[in-house]
Automatic annotation (TrEMBL):
This is Pyridoxal phosphate homeostasis protein. The modification N6-(pyridoxal phosphate)lysine is found at residue 40. Belongs to the pyridoxal phosphate-binding protein YggS/PROSC family. Keywords: Pyridoxal phosphate. Residues 28-237 form the Alanine racemase N-terminal domain.
Length: 244
């Protein structure tokens, strides 16, 4: 693990430099985006190595895994507090497991899920088990690929008015995933997400500060297009994955 820790620590430096450069190209500051280390493919020991390397925010795409890693970490002494976000498919029967544990849910993919999260959170707030509405992002299928989940842009335009009324959630912004292996399509996807955010802010008189987009292969493009949260898995945890 010591060698691994050294490798991912060096890798973290490279990622942070790449992020700062991409942000600078867009006239943004180095602190204008958050890096989430997506730990879905690694175990708790690798997460601890990443914490020692300087990471403080992690993303998991399965609720059970998020719960398990948080429990594992709580049993280790001497670790700084870390944050876990839920970034993947959330079934309604798993909502209660992540409430109060995940700091931000990136993957609200439908009106039904938004309502289910809101009603459960509201119940927990009423019972004094949760302090505040849960922070969420709305996942949008900007590229329109069949394989991708999330709100279609028009669908979101149509139901946004109802979503902002939900009392148990606080909508902090939008999330998307770009098509793989096509830089131009990725850029269009990220700028499309930003444009949709701008439009919804004006239409509903709200602020949506967060844009969660950019993964290992396209995070620099995402940062140039306004991303405030990049979700990086392989580039963080797999030292053999080449930074492009
Ligand atoms: C796995 C995953 C990532 C990270 O992907 P990499 O290409 O490994 O950086 C980001 N977001 C979501 C939703 C994921 O499932």
């Amino acid at each position: 693990m010591e060698r691994y820790e050294e490798l991912i620590s060096r890798r973290r430096q490279e990622i942070c430099e790449r992020m700062a450069d991409a942000l600078a190209r867009a006239g943004r500051g180095a602190d204008d985006a958050l890096l989430i280390a997506v730990s879905k493919t690694v175990g708790t020991d690798e997460v601890i190595a990443a914490i020692r390397a300087g990471y403080r925010t992690f993303g998991e795409n399965r609720p059970q895994e998020l719960v398990r890693k948080l429990a594992d970490l709580s049993e280790r002494d001497g670790l700084p507090p870390v944050r876990f976000d839920m970034i993947g498919n959330l079934q309604t029967n798993k909502i209660n497991a992540v409430l109060g544990r995940a700091q931000l849910i990136h993957s609200i993919r439908s009106q039904h899920l938004a309502e289910a999260v809101s009603s459960r959170a509201a119940r927990r707030i009423e019972a004094g088990e949760l302090e505040a509405p849960v922070d969420v992002l709305l996942e949008v299928n900007v590229s329109g690929e069949e394989s991708k989940s999330g709100f279609a842009p028009d669908e979101l335009r149509a139901c946004m008015g109802q979503l902002v009324e939900l009392m148990g959630i606080r909508i902090r912004g939008l999330m998307t995933m770009a098509p793989r292996g096509d830089k131009d399509a990725a850029r269009r996807t990220f700028s499309g997400l930003r444009d949709l955010r701008d439009e919804l802010q004006v239409a509903h008189g709200i602020v949506l500060p967060e844009l969660s987009c950019g993964m290992s292969e396209d995070f620099e493009i995402a940062l140039e297009e306004g991303s405030t949260i990049v979700r990086l898995g392989r580039v963080v945890f797999d030292p053999s994955f080449a930074l492009q």
